[in-house]
């Protein structure tokens, strides 16, 4: 697995080489705009970046997101309607053409990166969607921005985590400094579909290691993404679990202990039957269900050790500072589990969630909380402390997890990290045969490139198989 991930990363680093092979003219020019279509499960966000490099090609990249607009439909909605997707993409491209000055269009690279929403489909189905999108975006009549085949893809969950890690640490001015790796912050991210953990442990990494090349240095990061452990999918899983447990007898309703009393909803089970789910607000029972999803694997099946969830290896979080972002923010905030520095207190969160879960929906709505969050904060309020303490291994009294969405007012966004990595890969690249770009001391870089060249054949084999 780890080897595969490394190979994949190296494949990305060698993509410039393959583009040249394919006779394409693709380089990130000195133009300072770049676009990422962040294709999530609830919509696509057009994120436009502007950057400069005042100190030359090895100096700090100064980058800002200058535009962020959400388009409501998701590319997932087109997975079985490939013929209709051009119309949708054109809406986004039209907006992008307005924001980026027209003289820069042909020099500003565009990427489409899809996240957890597409990871639930079988590879071949998702690959068809991705290649349909690439064919449209690569057509210069339809899209004036240069697009590279590797630039239209579904991110692995680990890439998503690593990019968020890059964004957080970039905003803290970690790169292009002499700060030791121990001063990097770890990142905990939770979206609707998956949750990610990424950090530089202070012990060796035995699996799931991602090398990140930025600021003329390589950082070895441990990263893992758990699909179906994001906020929305976790809530759905609890319902599915309850329905499956109630079988084999036919049921048309189940009680959900993670939902508040007075709340109810309908879900469609795997056989297509509608099942009414009724809240019973029982924190103890809710926690039992959550713990089933979070259980660590049996000793015999956990290699290398230690394991976090199931058989997934994770080195110790040690005393490292973590930023918990996106869906990690809301429930702790509402439940009063953050101190004045926004540090998350797992014990208070669990206690206050236990209290919150026992209130009726009507009571919390009267207290000013929008109804849609009533049950969500019960389930998330119990889930998050268990995830941190029982799965990730933070001590219950940890003061190392900061729930924060931004650094100095700038949002920590994986897309920022992704853009930085893309710029760095192409600008300091790399396996250019001219040899002119080599810094005399960069033996390490040189050897990385040699390994990369060695792996190109294997990469091509993999790409050939997938695309
Ligand atoms: C690009 O798009 C235009 C307009 O839809 C179409 O006429 C043309 O055939 C496309 N080119 C390629 C290479 O697909
Ligand atoms: C389900 O919720 C609706 C409001 O969303 C409420 O009117 C209805 O009485 C509830 N039904 C049950 C059985 O709790
Ligand atoms: C959370 O619990 C703490 C003590 O355990 C209490 O002081 C605080 O008011 C509670 N906050 C909420 C929002 O319930
Ligand atoms: C957490 O608890 C342990 C053991 O009870 C203690 O040694 C440690 O100092 C505590 N840490 C913090 C940050 O309070």
Automatic annotation (TrEMBL):
First and last residue of the signal peptide: 1-19
GO MF assignments: hydrolase activity
Q: Does the keyword NAD apply?
A: no
Q: Where does ATP bind?
A: 192-196
User: Is Ion transport found in the keyword set?
Assistant: no
User: What are the positions of the active site?
Assistant: 160 (proton acceptor)
Please name the CDD domains in this protein's record: ASKHA_NBD_GDA1_CD39_NTPase
UniProt keywords, alphabetically = ATP-binding, Hydrolase, Nucleotide-binding, Signal
Q: Which family does it belong to?
A: Belongs to the GDA1/CD39 NTPase family.
Q: What is this protein called?
A: Apyrase
